[in-house]
Design brief:
The complex is a heterodimer of chains A (about 350) and B (about 300). With about 350 residues, chain A is of the alpha/beta class. Chain A contains 14 helices and 9 strands. In chain A, strand 1, helix 2 and strand 2 form a beta-alpha-beta unit. The longest helix of chain B is centred in the C-terminal third of the chain and has 40 residues. With about 300 residues, chain B is mainly alpha-helical. The chains are: A alpha/beta (about 350), B mainly alpha (about 300).
C-alpha cells in the first residue's frame, strides 16, 4: 500500500512538473455562434492552432455591440484577446482608446488589404471580411425576382416583409439606400429615406433584431422578401431553401467586419499572430469559400460562383456606397429617435 | 382553560454590549453597501455626466423630459406594471385563500401547481407565450381554422402580450405573498360572522378583504416592482413596437453606449418604484388607522 502511494505521489509531481513548461499559450477569441462558429473553427481556428501550437478558446457570447460595450465598460480588459466587430466599432474604439492600434510591422498581412477598406476601418481594425446588404426573397412566392429596393414597398409584398430593428446595422443602411433613391444622401439628408422606410413599415409584419430570427421568417414562408447580409443569404441558398438574393440596381452598402485587439488584452502577441494568420491568402480563401463572404484581399483565388456574387475585387468595392462611418456613429442616437417616431410609429 | 405564564429569570443579556449587537448585521450591511448603495450612488453620479464635455451637466435629464420617447417609455412602464400588478393580485387571491384555509391532500397539489411556473426559466416561458400569441401562433391558428376570424388578431408585440407574459411570471410571488397574509387572519372571525347570519359575500367584503389589505398591498407592490424592472419578457413579447424603460436602458447601454442617459432612465425607474411603494405603504397605514378607529368606536 505504502509503495503504491509513493509511486502515485511521485507520478503526480512528475506530471505537474512537466505540465507547466509544456502548457501551450492560450488565446481567447470572441465572435459569433451558429453557422459562423462552425465555419471559423474549421477554416481558421484549427489550422491556426496546428501551426502555432496556441490553444484557442472560442467565446461565442454576445453581439458585436455587446462586445464593444463590454470592452468600454472594462476599460479595454474584457477577458478576450481578439474580437470580431465592425468597422464602425473599430473607429469608435480607437477614438475611445480601448482598442489596440494595429500595424503592418507586427501583422504583415495588413499591407495586402485593400487600402480603401483599411482606411474605412481605421488603425485599430483589421478587415477580414466584407458582406453587403442584399435583397433576399422567396423564389417560390415571387413570380419575378426583385431588381430594386422599391420592391419592398410594392403591394405584392403586403404583410410579407420584415424589417430589422434599429439596433441591427441593416436598418440605417436601408434608410440610407432609400434616401439616395429619393433625392437625399447617405449622411446629411436622410429624411426621404425615413419617409420611404415608413411606407414599408406599414406593410411589414414588424421588426426583429437578430439575423437568426429574421432568417426564420423567410425560412418558414411568413416573409417573402427582406434585407439580409449577403454571406448569410448565400448560406441559405446553399442549404437548398427556395430563396435567392440580389444586389439591387440602385446599389447597396457593405458591412465591413474587423478583427480587433482590446487595449488591455492579456495575450497580445498571440492575438497579432492570429490576425495575421486570418489575413493570409490561404486563410482568406478558406474563409471566403466557407462563409461565402467577400474579402479585403483582392489577390485571392476563389470559385467563380463566389466571385460572381461577393466582393472580391476593387471593381466590386467601387460599386458599393460607403458612408462616413464616424459621422454615422455620431448621428446614430438622433436617427434612432427619428426611426422610432417616423418608422416604428407607422408600423402595423 | 389553563393559562401558563412563562417568566424570564431576569433582563435578557443577549445583545447587551454596544458594538456586539451590530455584529450580526454587518455581513448584510457590507453586502448592501458595496453591491447596492455604492453602485446606486455611482449610477446617480453618472446621470449628471456629460460625455461630450466630460463635465457635470443636466443634459441627459433635459433630453429625458423633452425627446418624447423617453416619457412615452416611462408611461408605458407605469401602465404595464400597474396592469400586471392588478391582474396578478386578482388572480392570486382565490388561490392564496384556498391555500391558506385548506388542509387536505389537494392543498399540496394546488401549491405545487401554483409554484410550478418557477421551475421553467423566464425566457423559456416567454417564448412559450410567443408561440401561443404570435400572428401564426396557436390561438390565431385555431381561430383562423375555425373560420372565426379572417386575419390574425394582434395578440403579440404589444401591451396585451407583455401583460399576459409578465402576469404569468409574477403570479407565483403574488400567491405566496397573499397566502402568508391570509394565513394571519383568524378564521374564527369568518365563522363568527356566518354564525351571526352574515351571507358569504358580506363576510368577504366586510371582514376578509379589509383584513387582507396588507397582503393585497404587498402583492401589488411586489408584482409592480418585478414587472417594472423586467427585461426579457417586454423585450420578447413587446418587441420594437412596445418599448419600456428596461428595454430602453439596455439599448442605451449596449448599443448607443450612452451610459449617462441610461442612468437617467434607471433613476426614473427607481423613483417610479419608490413612489409607488411609498403610496402603497401610506395607503395601508391609512386603512389600518381607519379600521382601528372603527373598531375603537364599536367598543
Amino acid at each position: 500500500m505504502g509503495r503504491t502511494r509513493l509511486i502515485f505521489t511521485v507520478s503526480a509531481f512528475a506530471v505537474a512538473a512537466l505540465a507547466t513548461p509544456l502548457r501551450a499559450e492560450t488565446l481567447v477569441v470572441n465572435s459569433y455562434g451558429g453557422p459562423y462558429e462552425a465555419i471559423i473553427r474549421k477554416a481558421i481556428i484549427e489550422p491556426f492552432a496546428q501551426r502555432t501550437g496556441i490553444d484557442v478558446i472560442y467565446d461565442p457570447v454576445g453581439s458585436a455591440s455587446q462586445d464593444y460595450a463590454k470592452i468600454k465598460a472594462t476599460g479595454g480588459r474584457p477577458g478576450f484577446d481578439v474580437v470580431v466587430m465592425t468597422a464602425s466599432q473599430s473607429l469608435q474604439g480607437c477614438k475611445d482608446g480601448v482598442l489596440e492600434k494595429l500595424d503592418a510591422n507586427s501583422i504583415p498581412n495588413l499591407a495586402k488589404l485593400s487600402r480603401r477598406l483599411t482606411e474605412t476601418a481605421g488603425p485599430c481594425g483589421a478587415v477580414h471580411e466584407v458582406q453587403y446588404m442584399s435583397l433576399l426573397y422567396r423564389t417560390d412566392k415571387l413570380a419575378t425576382p426583385p431588381v430594386s429596393w422599391s420592391a419592398l414597398a410594392s403591394s405584392d409584398l403586403a404583410g410579407r416583409v420584415v424589417l430589422p430593428t434599429f439596433q441591427n446595422t441593416m436598418a440605417i443602411y436601408l434608410v440610407e439606400m432609400f434616401s439616395l433613391m429619393n433625392g437625399g444622401d447617405l449622411v446629411d439628408n436622410l429624411a426621404p429615406g425615413f419617409r420611404a422606410v415608413a411606407v414599408i413599415a406599414k406593410q411589414s409584419i414588424g421588426f426583429e433584431q437578430s439575423s437568426a430570427i429574421l432568417e426564420s421568417y423567410i425560412k418558414d414562408g411568413t416573409v417573402w422578401a427582406m434585407p439580409f447580409w449577403s454571406g448569410r443569404a448565400q448560406l441559405l441558398v446553399d442549404s437548398g431553401l427556395s430563396v435567392d438574393y440580389v444586389k439591387p440596381k440602385e446599389g447597396t452598402i457593405p458591412l465591413v467586419a474587423t478583427l480587433n485587439i482590446p487595449i488591455g488584452a492579456e495575450h497580445k502577441d498571440a492575438a497579432r499572430k492570429f490576425i495575421d494568420f486570418f489575413l493570409e491568402k490561404t486563410s482568406q480563401e478558406a474563409w471566403v469559400g466557407g462563409y461565402k463572404v467577400g474579402s479585403a484581399r483582392t489577390d485571392i483565388d476563389v470559385p467563380a460562383a463566389v466571385k460572381a456574387r461577393q466582393i472580391t475585387s476593387d471593381a466590386d468595392l467601387n460599386s458599393l456606397h460607403l458612408p462616413n462611418l464616424t459621422t454615422v456613429a455620431e448621428r446614430l442616437p438622433k436617427w434612432a429617435e427619428q426611426w422610432e417616431r417616423d418608422v416604428v410609429a407607422h408600423a402595423n | 382553560m389553563t393559562i401558563i405564564a412563562l417568566e424570564m429569570p431576569g433582563k435578557p443579556r443577549v445583545f447587551a454590549r454596544g458594538w456586539i449587537r451590530f455584529l450580526g448585521l454587518s455581513p448584510a450591511t457590507c453586502l448592501l453597501v458595496f453591491f447596492f448603495a455604492l453602485p446606486m450612488g455611482m449610477m446617480i453620479g453618472m446621470s449628471f455626466h456629460n460625455p461630450s464635455s466630460q463635465g457635470v451637466s443636466l443634459l441627459s435629464y433635459s433630453r429625458f423630459f423633452t425627446d418624447g420617447l423617453s416619457l412615452l417609455g416611462f408611461w408605458r412602464t407605469t401602465l404595464m406594471s400597474s396592469l400586471v400588478a392588478i391582474s396578478a393580485t386578482l388572480l392570486a387571491y382565490p388561490v392564496a385563500y384556498y391555500l391558506a384555509r385548506s388542509r387536505g391532500r389537494w392543498r399540496s397539489i394546488v401549491f405545487a401547481i401554483a409554484l410550478a411556473p418557477e421551475l421553467a426559466g423566464v425566457v423559456l416561458r416567454t417564448y412559450g407565450w410567443l408561440i401561443i400569441l404570435e400572428d401564426r401562433g396557436f390561438i390565431n391558428d385555431v381561430l383562423l381554422h375555425a373560420g372565426l376570424i379572417s386575419s390574425p388578431l394582434p395578440l403579440s408585440k404589444n401591451l396585451f402580450a407583455v401583460v399576459i407574459g409578465l402576469t404569468h411570471v409574477v403570479l407565483p410571488f403574488a400567491i405566496l405573498s397573499l397566502t402568508t397574509s391570509i394565513q394571519g387572519i383568524d378564521d374564527n372571525l369568518e365563522r363568527a360572522a356566518q354564525i351571526l347570519g352574515a351571507p358569504r359575500h358580506a363576510v368577504v367584503w366586510h371582514i376578509l378583504l379589509p383584513l387582507s389589505v396588507p397582503g393585497l398591498i404587498s402583492s401589488f407592490l411586489l408584482s409592480f416592482t418585478m414587472a417594472a424592472s423586467a427585461y426579457a419578457t417586454p423585450a420578447l413579447l413587446g418587441g420594437a413596437s412596445f418599448k419600456v424603460l428596461a428595454t430602453m436602458i439596455s439599448e442605451q447601454v449596449l448599443f448607443y453606449i450612452d451610459w449617462s442617459f441610461a442612468a437617467v432612465m434607471a433613476n426614473a425607474l427607481l423613483i417610479l418604484m419608490l413612489v409607488i411603494s411609498y403610496a402603497g405603504v401610506r395607503f395601508e397605514a391609512g386603512c389600518r388607522q381607519k379600521y382601528q378607529s372603527v373598531a375603537g368606536g364599536m367598543k
